[in-house]
Design a protein that fits this description.
It is built from 7 helices and 5 strands; from the N terminus they run H-H-E-H-E-H-E-H-E-E-H-H. The chain is an alpha/beta fold and about 180 residues long. Helix 2 packs across helix 6 (about 155-170) and helix 3 packs parallel to helix 6. Helix content is about 50%, strand content about 15%. Strands 2-1-3-4-5 form a 5-stranded parallel beta sheet. The chain starts with 6 loop residues before the first helix and ends with a helix. It is globular and about 55 Å long. Helix 5 links the parallel strand 3 (about 95-100) and strand 4 (about 120-125). The longest helix has 19 residues, at about 5-25. The protein has helices at about 5-25, 30-40, 55-65, 80-85, 105-115, 155-170, 170-175; strands at about 45-50, 70-75, 95-100, 120-125, 135-140.
Length: about 180
């Protein structure tokens, strides 16, 4: 067993504190609304992450596309973004991950998607990405840990909870 001061225990304690704080601060009605949007079979869902969160976006995409049709991952290469923007239609959902050291290119994409009529769902940190100004819903999660990098533990938890809610919402089609 590692001592309490070991990095394993310090990071685990911080991750559990972040999860508890996030659960206290996230409005469950907003979370439910996000899941209803992402589970609505009449809407396409586009998923985008930044440099640090692209793998979390990919995780959401992989699971959602197994649960419902019409889910697209915005490619990592910004040179492909203009053609992907053309695929966004009014009423679509853009689920975008943006955490501190916010990416101006991701912000521009979200603003352009909103102009095309997309409903922007932001998954961000406690410091709130500027994308919150164009988002219909924002989930601000805690991710500060004693490390040079922020933690995505709570973000992955939130993604898994979203997927579980979407699967439950669409169980007949998903099954």
């Amino acid at each position: 067993k590692a001592p309490r001061t070991h990095i394993l225990n310090r990071l685990a304690d911080a991750a559990m504190d972040n999860l508890s704080a996030s659960l206290r601060h996230v409005d469950h009605h907003v979370f439910d609304d996000v899941c209803k949007l992402m589970g609505d079979p009449k809407r396409h869902v586009h998923v985008l992450g930044g440099r640090i969160t692209s793998h979390v976006a990919g995780y959401l995409h992989t699971h959602l596309q197994m649960a419902r049709a019409g889910v697209r991952l915005v490619p990592g290469s910004t040179s492909l973004w203009p053609q992907h923007l053309l695929e966004i239609t009014p009423g679509d959902v853009l689920a975008v991950f943006d955490v501190r050291r916010y990416d101006a290119r991701v912000q521009d994409f979200a603003a352009s998607a909103k102009q095309r009529g997309a409903k922007i769902v932001l998954i961000t940190d406690q410091w709130m990405s500027p994308i919150s100004r164009v988002a219909i819903h924002s989930l601000a999660l805690r991710m500060d840990v004693p490390s040079g990098w922020d933690s995505n533990v709570v973000t992955i938890f939130a993604v898994e909870a979203m997927v579980a809610a979407v699967v439950k919402q669409n169980w007949k089609a998903t099954r």
